[in-house]
Amino acid sequence: MPQLLGLDLDIRARRLLRTLIAQYLADGEPVGSRTLSRSSGLDVSPATIRNIMADLEDAGLVASPHTSAGRVPTPRGLRLFVDSLLELQPLALDDMARLRRELPPGPTTTLDLLGNVSTLLSAMTRFAGVVTVPRQVDFPLRHIDFVSLPDARVLVILVFSDNQVQNRIVQLAKSVEAHELEHLLRELREASSELNQLLSSTVELAAASFAPQAGGDDVLVSGQTNLMAYAELANLERLRELFEAFQKKNELLQLMEVCAKAPGVRLFIGEESGFTALDGCSVVTASYGAQGRVLGAVGVIGPTRMAYERVIPVVQATAGLLSDALNRAATAL
Q1: Considering the entire predicted model, what is its pTM?
Q2: Angle at 128 (CA atoms; ends 124, 134), nearest 5 degrees
Q3: How many Cα neighbours within 13 Å face the side chain of 114?
């Protein structure tokens, strides 16, 4: 029997709460006792249903909007529903086929792959799709090249194992001759396994080459404007806070990094995220990785009134397929 903060629910209360939440998630309207009586399949009187609803309201699981005699689930009620009352099914075959079809099948950079995943999650759920970008140091360096430039500058060309190419211009304290760069490159190519040790002999060049690039994307977000279609989020002040969070990304990155550290699916409902901008939202995430290492998290952000039974499997399956794609890319090297 599910228990929440010391609250025990009997079979009738569980059935009515599940019915109320399913109905609310489907149409977004407060659910009245008469509707519950018809939909729950329980042979109880309307008075009994009202009494049970009053108990659930006292427990903080449902609430009565001022404009309606019906009730809606609270974030606390939704949490109990997801944890104890929701019966998850495997992702529908059509949805899985779409994921496989629309994820890039051939070689691509990790950044392009993650951008595609973010867009695909948004399209499949009609929410905002979110993906964290791994640090470049999580991918081995496949190739490096140096080009000497005027004024003590060097163009460093880095090719990583995920096919990402980065070109950086490094300003040195003094000029380096072309033959010195060629000598360094020859040593690097002859002993690639000792790359870090060899680069340590040219500390200035190494530090500047592998330092994080300014303006890099730590989180990719797609479909933010989808959230404007939901009445629950249609308050201008709420939307402004939400879009600012998407733009600045700092809090969002913190939340996604927490999610990446935990296996399986993570779900935050309303205030559970700890960030005011997401108080009216639910965040569903799952971690992804390659070769036994966690690299980040994928997920969606939408209103608390979402079809959890479908969204959770979509996010979970997407994380799995992304991990498979990254593993294939790693083994193809």
Answers
A1: 0.75
A2: 100
A3: 25
